[in-house]
């Protein structure tokens, strides 16, 4: 039997949780009549208040959404990290190109000065 604490929290037995999860897998949005039928069909849930079952389904849907959002967040995070790595490598390559061009420019300027002096 589900135990209710003074705060209104419910502690479900393992059998009740298994039954609720099985029902959730079949129908995550049960109507009031479907929840009544669930209680009628499942002895483990017969003593659980209708409102508690309704709230359990709401909480379970919220948990699903949270898990989905977390999975999407981690996917986006991995993509951002990969993009960051590529951009950092490209930036390093561009820095090296600029340094090479500056060195070449300095070399050419020095050669020009020497030629002008030799004229």
From TrEMBL:
Pfam families per the UniProt record, alphabetical: Homeodomain (PF00046)
DNA-binding as UniProt keyword: yes
Predominant location category: nucleus
Keyword set, alphabetical order: DNA-binding, Homeobox, Nucleus
CDD domains listed in its UniProt record: homeodomain
A GO term, aspect molecular function: DNA-binding transcription factor activity
Binding region for DNA: 5-68
Name of the protein described by the UniProt record: Homeobox-leucine zipper protein HOX9
Organism per entry: Coffea arabica (Arabian coffee)
Protein's gene: LOC113723760
């Amino acid at each position: 039997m589900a135990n209710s604490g003074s705060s209104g929290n419910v502690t479900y037995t393992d059998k009740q949780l298994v039954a609720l999860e099985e029902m959730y897998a079949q129908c995550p949005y049960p109507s009031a009549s479907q929840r009544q039928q669930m209680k009628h069909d499942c002895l483990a849930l017969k003593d659980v208040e209708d409102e508690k079952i309704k709230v359990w389904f709401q909480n379970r849907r919220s948990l699903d959404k949270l898990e989905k959002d977390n999975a999407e967040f981690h996917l986006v995070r991995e993509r951002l990290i990969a993009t960051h790595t590529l951009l950092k490598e490209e930036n390093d390559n561009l820095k090296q190109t600029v340094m090479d061009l500056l060195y070449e420019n300095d070399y050419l300027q020095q050669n020009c000065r020497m030629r002008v002096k030799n004229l």
